[in-house]
Structure formats: C-alpha cells, structure tokens
Specification:
Two copies of one chain form a homodimer.
Chain A lengths: L16 H5 L4 H14 L5 E2 L11 H13 L11 H15 L8 E4 L1 H13 L5 E6 L3 H9 L3 E6 L10 H7 L4 E7 L11 H13 L3 E5 L22 E5 L12 E4 L5 H12 L4 H7 L5 H28 L12 E5 L7 H12 L1 E2 L1 E2 L11 E5 L4 H15 L2
Parallel strand pairs in A: 1-10, 3-4, 3-5, 5-6, 6-7
Antiparallel strand pairs in A: 2-8, 7-8, 9-12, 11-12
Helix pairs in contact in A: 3-10, 5-6, 5-9, 7-8, 11-13
Chain lengths: ~400, ~400
Amino acid sequence: MPNFENKKFLTDSRLADRVADIHSFIVVDFITRAKAMEAAGKSIVNLAVGEPDFETPSPIVKAAMETLKVNSIRYGPSLGSDALREKISDWYETKYGVDLSPGRVAVTSGSSAGLLLVMGVLLSPKDEVIMADPGYPCNRHIVRAMEGRTRSVPVGPNTGYQLTADLIAEHWTDRTVAAIVASPSNPTGTLISHEEMKKICSFVESKSGSLIVDEIYHGLTFGLDAKTVLEITQNVFVINSFSKYFGMTGWRLGWIVAPELFINAIEKLAQNLYISNSDIAQQAALAAFDPKTIEMAEGNRKKYQQQREFLLPRLKNLGFIIPIDPQGAFYIYSDCSAFTGDSYSFCLDVLENVGVAIAPGIDFGNYRAKEHVRFSYTKPINVLKEGLDRLESYLKR
Amino acid sequence: MPNFENKKFLTDSRLADRVADIHSFIVVDFITRAKAMEAAGKSIVNLAVGEPDFETPSPIVKAAMETLKVNSIRYGPSLGSDALREKISDWYETKYGVDLSPGRVAVTSGSSAGLLLVMGVLLSPKDEVIMADPGYPCNRHIVRAMEGRTRSVPVGPNTGYQLTADLIAEHWTDRTVAAIVASPSNPTGTLISHEEMKKICSFVESKSGSLIVDEIYHGLTFGLDAKTVLEITQNVFVINSFSKYFGMTGWRLGWIVAPELFINAIEKLAQNLYISNSDIAQQAALAAFDPKTIEMAEGNRKKYQQQREFLLPRLKNLGFIIPIDPQGAFYIYSDCSAFTGDSYSFCLDVLENVGVAIAPGIDFGNYRAKEHVRFSYTKPINVLKEGLDRLESYLKR
C-alpha cells in the first residue's frame, strides 16, 4: 500500500529550507492514486475531489470557441483584462449591492495565484498569519513559501469550526500581520456570521493588520446566501475564483479584491511572477455572469443541495459524528473516531479495499486531524449511494 | 508625460519588505501606455513588445477547439498531463538527440511559474543567485520574491553580453547557491557557446551549486541552431516555454526540466502554489510538436531572420552602437549613448513625440542601462521601416 504521507524525498543540501516544511497536497495524491486504480480497471467512487462534477456551463465554453474563431490569444494586462475586471465589479453590485471600483479587482491565475500575490505583498520573513486548523491546506504552505509563518488556531464545533474575533485576539502577537478566514470553509463547509465577521474586521483593523477573506465557495450555500465582507469594510482582501460556483476549475482563473493602497504592489508582483493571465480563460469568463450561465449555476447549486441532504443523514447513521450541519461548499467534515484514531490509514485502507476515495484530516491541519475525514458531495446521488454502500460494507467487516 | 520609473507607491507599513525591492516590469508599463495612446487615436509603432506578431499556429488553435467540443476542462496533475510531458520528452529526442525521461519534465503556467518553482525549491532567505546584467528583468524579482538575493554581474561585448565560467567563479561566494544564464538572452539576443557552457556546468558542479539555463528562445536563432545544456549534463534546470517559438504567449504554458532529485520537491510546491496548469492550454499544446506546426514555426523563424537583417544595419546607420550581432531571440540591444545618457527619458520622449515604443535599458539591470535600449523585431518589415523613419525624424530634429 502506498504511503503518501511519508513519501520519501531524496534529501539534498541544495534544497531550500522551505521544502522540508511544505507538504504534498495529500488529497491530490489520493486522487492521483484513485485515477491510477481506475485506469487499472478498478471501480472507484471519488468522494475526495474538490471539483464540480458538472461541466463548465455551455455559455462559457461557447465564448471560448468564439474567441478562438475570431481573436488572437495574447499577453494582456497583468491585473487582468479591463472588460473582465468591470464584469467582476458589476457582479458585486448585482449580487451584493456593493459599489466596487474595477481598479481594485485583480484577475489571477486561479485563486492559488491570488493567495500567493496577497501573501507576497504582505509578508516579510517570519511575519505571522493566523488561520484556522482545520483549514485549506495550501494557505499555510503559501505562507511558508513566502517565508511567513503560520499560527494555526485549533477550531471545533463550539465556534462552528471557524475563527472568531476572540480567538484571533487571543493568538495575535507582535509578529502577526494578518489573519485569513474562509466562509464557507474548506474542509468544514461552515460560514462565519455577518455579526462575527464585523467583530473580526474591527479587531484586525484595531491592530493595523490585514484581513484576508476566502469567498471561493460563495454561491454554494444552502438555505442562505453568504454576504461578502465588502459589505462591512473596504480595508480587506477578498479571494475568489471562477472554479467552483462557475465550474471553471481547469481554466485556472480567479480574482482578488484588494484595498486601494495595495493594488500597485500587487500589480508589480503580478507583472514579475506571472506576466499575465490566460487570455482564453479571461475571454471565456466574460460569459460567466450572463443570466443563462447564472441560471445553470443555480441549477447546479440545487443539485448540490439535494446531494448534501442525501449524504449528511446517512453519514450520521453510519456513525460519523457531524456536530454542525455544514451550510456551504460541497464538503462534510466528519469525526471518524468511532472507527479509527488514524484517519490517514483509514482513508488509504478504504480506498484500497472498497475503492472509495475520501480525504484524510491530515491534509487540513493537525488539530484532531487523525479523527476526521472530509467527504465531498460533488457526485450525483446514485454515485454517493454506491460510495455509502461500499463504506458500510467496509465498516461492518 | 508619465513617469513609470518613479511611479508612486503609496507606502503602508503593512507592505512586505520585498515590495520596495521589486520593480514594475517597465516594458509592460510602456506597452500599456502605447496601447492607451493607440486607443486615443494615435498611431503607434511597437518595437518594445516581446511577443510574436504571428498568430498561434492554426493546428494548436484547432486542437483547442476540438478539446472544447469533446472534453471537460478539468484540474489535472500538478506537473502537467502525462501526454504533454511525453510529447516534450520526445521533442528533446527529435530536436537534440537527448534521451529525457518524461518524469523529469514539469509543465508550468508559463515559464514565469517555472522560474518561481525552481527558485522556490532552491533558495532559502539571503541565498545568492548569480546572473548577468543586462538580463531578463523578472529573474531578479522572482529571486527577491522568494527571499533570495541577486548578485548581478555586469557583462558587455567582450563576453558577448553573457556570463562566462570565469565571471561566475569570480563572483561565487559562500552564500551563492545558483547561477542563471539565458541562451539566447533577452535582451541581448546573444548565445553562450557550447564550449563555454561546458565550462560553466563544470564550475557550478564543482561548487555543488545549481545551474539554471533559460532556453526560452530556442528555435529562434539565425544562422545556427542552439544546443541544449542537456547535451552536456543532466544535473541542471532548464526553463522553456510555449510562448515564443510556438507562438502561445496568451495561453500561459511553459516547462521545466529538472534534475531527478528535485522533481518531488517541485511537485509538492506546484500542488500548493498552482494546483494545476491550464487544461485547455495543455490540450492545445499537444499539437505544438506536429510537423505542420513546426513547419509554420520554421516559416515564422525565416521571417524573423529577414526582419532582423532589415533592422540591424539600419540601426547601426542611425548611430546606435551594436558591437555584437545578436544571433537569437527577436531583440537588438543597442547602445544609444550617441543620443542620450538617460535612455529611460529618451524612450518616453520617443514614444510621446513620434509614437515609437522602445524598451529602456533600465528594465534589464543597472550596468550601462541608461545608455542602452532594446528593439524588438517581431513586427513585419513595413512596420519596422515606419518605426525607423519616425525614429530618424526624431533624432534629426
């Protein structure tokens, strides 16, 4: 059985120090393994992947095809095409009633590039960033790549698996320059209430620090709409993406909204680190805000909601402990301590034995990571059912 | 008149230290200004841009369209699709007779991302990288972004505007971990001879350092073919790109060839910093090595050669000093000291007065930067002629 956790890295004195501290994106390793098993003829149910099962909405694909017929594919401005920055700005007006200058929008090569740029303009060596554990794995590694340091704050059901203003205050030190929160959160699917977000904004502002809010899963909330932090303050970094709600993972396109003061710094870093974004992806994304695309995205959202409502009670019935019903993203972060004290081995064993891929908690931090796994409900109900049947047979062996 | 060099950055104590050290990509600012003037109705001759004037070859565009008709656009492996890594590996066999495992190829989101990954796995804070001045501007800024430090070595006509093994040896210190060379070089268009490259490889190896060779302009050499450093050693990082020879700038796709030992480190950094590359660009690039595409690329190369042969003697006639005829890329790095001791103001003045965009030396380093400008010869001969006529009228005012 492969063990990605302890994947051997040949050591070489030439490797940068950061390499030892940056871990593989373990769920990516699991998915790669699952795909290899599938290619070898094994039937796999993938409940690990953080990628919509739906295709990119057809108006976006059509816009890309029209572009290929008519236009050159060229370098463009490092902060993104004017047309797309304006569309994004308009979207904040339409969706949230927020008046946002296109000049504060930076289009990025996926939200990963957006995070790197924000950390790049904020972090000097050993500056600290506060974030929740569990949280999105790449956050801490991008901080480390930029020579910052992460202060992970264990969070559990009592705060909805989220940071609070009080927790941030408790962990803020002289070295802290920023806090990052995600609402909805990957892996927990929980949101931060608008009232708590106001308190967080006030606290970080009182420290002259920077707040980064990951709104990548906006649009994918169930039973409520998420508010943007831009309804509270303009002195904030927002990270967003065309990948999830708009179904454009493989196109690699996201955006930042930055405080006015930081846009020039982000621009010069983007010029040097990326030159420009994918032209074809930007031309395609111009159709992302069309009414027809939104109608399709909202249709997909309803299906995710049904999938969530199918999976959630059944996981609880199987014995997974889920104290807070997640309200967003497409993940259920589940306490699996009834079955194992080593969720990493558990996930590997489930994959190898019954062909169900689940993401182990270790990918998302350290706090009770060995007692948690993350289920994705991106797949249709019949696939989820097959996965649950296999999991049940595994658990009842 | 705008002054990009001194573009004001609002200072904020929250900005990372690196921001003060990283400069705008000045030629990008010039091109943006030129486009704005054009949009305002002014006629502009763009001799600043480092982008092929030719369209992306049609087989590549066609492959993208077929992909959009048939396939989903999805996340993929962080090191690139297996199919594309194999095609790239095959290319080294076909073009250079080098046997290269696809496992040592990492596909990247442009060569910019490739450089960032290589610097990311090599540089701990304050580690030094030796590079030529003049050289590609982003190199030193990517080093700075990763908290390394650049040791710029002034180079001139006596070494063909290139580093030599002797120069590298002279500047190597206890803090040096790597040297980067480019052959052909941007901005000078000169190559490093295979014999000198052998000496460079030996020296860097003797220091247990790392050598990075930028081969982005391979295929764009005139009167000779460039050899790859992989014909000399496998203990080297090669940076390459689909942007220039293959005409895919706006698609954002490049690749690294890395020593075996470093591939796992590059993979985990790529997983965290990028997740994956553009799927549509990768599918399109599968057609980059088709005989029909290569035929088109070679046709373009002949046109570049004609454009070079048109521009080079005329620039000399106008009074620009060009001691070494450049043999590659599509640039002529020209000593303009007959006209100015401040090439930055000169370029701005030329742009504002006669609408000709040229890149000022300051973008490429400090050494005699104020006495140099870079001309691109990507445009057809009639456009080059118009630019030269305007430049002549400006100089004879």
